[in-house]
Write a structure and sequence with these properties.
Layout (H helix, E strand, L loop, with lengths): L12 H11 L9 H12 L14 E5 L2 H11 L7 E4 L6 H8 L3 E4 L11 H14 L5 E5 L8 H11 L2 E5 L7 E2 L2 E2 L8 E5 L12 E5 L2 H11 L3 E2 L16 E2 L10 H11 L2 H19 L5 E2 L6 E2 L5 E4 L5 H13 L15 H5 L8 H9 E4 L7 H14 L1
Parallel strand pairs: 2-3, 2-4, 4-5, 5-8
Antiparallel strand pairs: 1-9, 6-7, 6-13, 8-9, 10-11, 12-14, 14-15
Helix pairs in contact: 1-8, 2-8, 3-4, 3-7, 5-6, 10-13
This protein binds pyridoxal-5'-phosphate.
Pyridoxal-5'-phosphate binds next to helix 3 and helix 4.
């Protein structure tokens, strides 16, 4: 069997033609493709109109990575030195690094072992304690692990009670739904972030996007993405000197996405729903294959339709020797099994900040039990059977 990675992009002839077309055009950056990509993603995140209310699509701001989008989202929400930001310890380090970039202090909310998402019970308890200690967070970054939304209604309810802002790190969850609305509509959050790294659901090679239904936040995000510079007269502190004039009114960055990336992103977006449907189909095959085994797939939530960025199973017990042997065994069999994630607070850099082993016990237990299996649209039935058979033989 050839090597089977845990995730892989799907590139079509249409994708290639779209990128080539941009290369032959006048703009390879700062042209029409980035706004077109933003519009395509915003439309797919639009909340459904009801009898009482009609909704506009959210604002969408493309960046050169989800990490950049997380950084400027924290800044747009006013995160600065002395502030506290909370996130999940079971995520990629970018979910918490973004707060450190702003000089803020980070803390973590322990997870629910069986969904891998933050535990709302632990969140509620931690907020109660933080209110007493006067250490309430300014922003909470929830992470929709593997593509399944957190229980956002409850997080939103708590945000109204305790006054924090919410960023959804939906790097895994484009194309997912929560309560039948697209993740990214921002019904229960201030900003939602997507990643278009090649292992994610759709790709622009590198790339990210921030969505928000708040026009003030959208304007700040656009400014921070491009140096904090404006050419719009009404945003300037004095009358424009002329058509060449611009002003820097904030300290921003160059976090722009290129036209090549956006063209790939636009083309990929046309297949988003097919990709997610296919991932769900493959996940169901895994689910059925593990029904009579001691392995437990992450628990699906009734209110969420997962985008299945990852397919994760938990071992029945904490047995780090078995866990290691299984991962090594799978890799020896050419199966790129992985672990998502090493708890962030156990990373050396975070230990230097004062976090200790034992701080977030569920996250630590999860790490010793979780295995991510290959999942991507082109995974064949034959490869999937081989993965299941190999995995069972290692138990
Ligand atoms: C991939 C990922 C990121 C970072 O995305 P980039 O686009 O690579 O910067 C952030 N958070 C989570 C949860 C991710 O999986």
């Amino acid at each position: 069997m050839n090597y089977i990675p845990y995730g892989k992009q799907n590139i079509s002839d249409q994708d290639i033609a779209a990128v080539v077309e941009v290369l032959q055009s006048d703009f390879i950056t700062q042209g029409p493709k980035v706004p077109e990509f933003e519009r395509a993603i915003a439309l797919q995140c639009k909340q459904k109109d009801t009898a009482e209310q009609s909704f506009e699509p959210p604002h969408a701001v493309a960046t050169n990575s989800a990490t950049s989008a997380l950084h400027i989202s924290c800044l747009a929400l006013g995160v600065e030195q002395g502030d506290l930001v909370w996130t999940s310890p079971i995520s990629f380090v970018a979910s918490s690094n973004c707060a450190l970039y702003c000089g803020a202090k980070i803390d973590f909310i322990d997870i629910d072992l069986f969904t891998g998402n933050i535990s709302n019970k632990k969140l509620a308890d931690k907020l109660k304690q933080a209110e007493i200690n006067n250490t309430l967070p300014k922003v909470i970054i929830v992470v929709h692990l593997a593509g399944q939304s957190c229980d956002m209604k409850e997080v939103y309810r708590l945000s109204e009670r305790y006054g924090f802002s919410i960023i959804e790190d939906a790097s895994h969850a484009i194309g997912a739904r929560y309560n039948n609305e697209a993740v990214g509509c921002c019904q229960y959050s201030d900003i939602t972030i997507f990643s278009f790294h090649p292992v994610k659901i759709i790709t622009s090679a590198e790339g990210g996007m921030a969505l928000t239904d708040n026009s003030t936040l959208a304007k700040k995000l656009r400014s921070l993405r491009s140096h904090g510079v404006t050419a719009v007269a009404e945003d300037m502190t004095e009358p424009s000197h002329g058509p060449w004039y611009y002003q820097q009114i904030a300290l921003g960055f160059n976090y722009r996405m290129t036209e090549l990336q956006a063209a790939l992103g636009v083309s990929q977006t046309t297949r988003l729903h097919d990709f997610v449907a296919k991932r769900n189909e493959l996940a169901t095959i895994y689910d059925n294959a593990f029904k009579d085994s001691p392995l437990t797939p992450l628990t699906p939530s009734d209110s969420a339709y997962s985008a299945y960025h990852l397919y994760i199973v938990l071992l029945p017990v904490v047995d780090s020797e078995l866990h290691k042997n299984m991962l090594v065994g799978l890799r020896a069999a050419n199966i790129g099994a992985h672990v998502h994630y090493i708890p962030i607070h156990t990373q050396p850099y975070y230990q230097e900040l004062g976090f200790k082993l034992g701080d977030f016990p569920n996250a630590e237990e999860y790490y010793q039990r979780a295995i991510s299996l290959p999942l991507y649209p082109e995974l064949s039935r034959e490869e999937q059977s081989y993965i299941v058979k190999t995995l069972k033989s290692l138990l």
